[in-house]
Amino acid sequence: MGNPVVHWELMSKEPAKVADFYARIFGWKVQHHPEINYRVVETGAPKEMPGINGGIVRPDREGPWPGNMLFYILVDDLAAYRKKIVAAGGKIHVEEQKVPGMGKLSLFTDPEGRMMGLWKAKARK
């Protein structure tokens, strides 16, 4: 079985403006979390064809941001996948970052420079 895409993220210089655009056009629900500089987006996909939710963020560092959009791929072991990425010609940009109460992520670029994310969800009790 493959590893599913479980989250997407838009990088924006004006996240409030971008969030309003998508909310007005597509009816997405956007909840701003100023304490983590993040907007959580619920796309409201119907059950017949479930989609994925995402987020909108203004990165802490200046651009350019490769691709300006990330997909997060669910994995069970961040370190093991980072090794696979490097061995296949990719580059790790964020080794491991904790997202409180949710899980951990790593960021990488593929051999053509597209930034992507790895996601390890927090274990459920």
Describe this structure in a few short sentences.
With 125 residues, the chain is of the alpha+beta class. It is built from two helices and eight strands; from the N terminus they run βαββββαβββ.
How is this structure best described in words?
It is built from two helices and eight strands. The protein is an alpha+beta fold and 125 residues long. An eight-stranded mixed sheet has the order 2-3-4-1-5-8-7-6, covered by helices on one side. A hairpin with a 5-residue loop joins strand 7 and strand 8 (115-121). The radius of gyration is 15 Å and the shape is globular. The protein starts with a strand and ends with a strand. The model has no long low-confidence stretch (mean pLDDT 87).
Question: Which stretches of 5+ consecutive residues score pLDDT under 50?
Answer: none
Please report the number of helical segments.
2
Order of helices and strands: EHEEEEHEEE
Integer average pLDDT = 87
Strand segment tally:
8
Specify the biggest β-sheet. Answer: 8 strands, mixed
Strand order of the largest sheet: 2-3-4-1-5-8-7-6
What is the first-to-last residue Cα distance?
A: 24 Å
> How would you sum up the global shape?
globular
Topology at a glance:
Layout: E1 5-11, H1 15-26, E2 29-33, E3 38-42, E4 54-57, E5 69-74, H2 78-87, E6 91-99, E7 103-109, E8 115-121
Parallel strand pairs: 1-4, 5-8
Antiparallel strand pairs: 1-5, 2-3, 3-4, 6-7, 7-8
